[in-house]
Specification:
- The complex is a heterodimer of chains A (118) and B (113).
- By secondary structure, chain A is of the alpha+beta class.
- Chain A has a 4-stranded antiparallel beta sheet with strand order 1-2-4-3.
- In chain A, a hairpin with a 6-residue loop joins β1 and β2.
- Chain B is an alpha/beta fold.
- Chain B has one domain: STAS domain (Transcription Regulator spoIIAA).
- Chain B is 41% helix and 27% strand.
- Chain B is built from 4 helices and 5 strands, in the order ββαβαβαβα.
- In chain B, strands 1-2-3-4-5 form a 5-stranded mixed beta sheet.
- Chain B starts with a strand and ends with a helix.
- Classes of the chains: A alpha+beta (118), B alpha/beta (113).
């Protein structure tokens, strides 16, 4: 993941943050959408945002899976600093990226994460 | 990932080498809980110098260790965090809840059992 983010223009720290976000997203898909079953398809798309027409440059990462729809409580943020061991993955994704948006499109889960170059 | 234990008086030092992620965080959790809950070691120190990457499941294992240490009134100490591991712990907003030192010498001298 890091080489892609680096090629887009992100610094070392941002590359680590993007790697963590993608890792956590894949973990969540395996755990929740596919119920822990391995060998299921996950499609990942990387779109470089060029920053044309006044938009900010960055990277859009889209993850598509055909697992079950996540429960509403699985998409809620964690209260900060609370000593609990579950639900950290989504919190890490939201902390690492500028936007994280989940949509159910037909039988597909579409997770779109964007990070802009600072 | 490899995890090995060194035993001193009232203290276990766990040396971890490799990533702590979804695949191996259950092993970390198991070892931590065995030292704290079953063996009732009063001070468990985890050496993370050999850990380059840790994800949310790894942090969750450390949180389990911290909770167990509080339950049994033991000390759970970390040292040798890489830049990446420290960043992830900061992201979790739990970093202030952990007792963290730079190296083993500091962990042993400051974190008395």
């Amino acid at each position: 993941m890091s080489p892609i983010a680096s090629a887009v223009g992100f610094g070392e720290e941002d590359c680590r943050a993007i790697t963590l976000a993608v890792d956590e997203a894949i973990t969540n898909i395996i755990r929740h959408a596919y119920g822990g079953k391995l060998g299921r398809a996950i499609e990942i798309q990387f779109n470089q945002l060029n920053g044309t027409n006044g938009a900010k440059p960055g990277l859009e990462i889209v993850l598509l899976d055909h697992g079950t729809k996540p429960k509403a409580e699985a998409l809620k943020s964690l209260p900060p600093g609370e000593l609990r061991s579950g639900g950290l993955g989504l919190h890490f994704m939201r902390q690492s990226m500028d936007t994280v948006v989940h949509k159910r499109v037909g039988s597909t889960n579409r997770l779109c994460m964007v990070k802009f170059i600072r | 990932m490899q995890i090995s234990a060194r035993y001193l008086e009232n203290t276990t030092i766990l040396d971890v080498i490799g990533d702590i992620d979804l695949a191996n965080s259950p092993a970390v959790r198991k070892v931590l809980l065995a030292e704290l809950r079953e063996k009732k070691i009063p001070r468990v120190i985890m050496n993370l110098q050999g850990v380059k990457y840790i994800d949310s499941s790894g942090i969750a294992s450390l949180v389990e260790g911290l909770k167990a240490s509080r339950d049994v009134q033991a000390r759970f100490i970390l040292f040798g965090l890489s830049k990446s591991a420290r960043e992830v712990l900061q992201l979790s907003r739990l970093i202030k809840l952990f007792e963290i030192y730079e190296n083993e010498e500091q962990a042993l001298s400051n974190g008395s059992a």
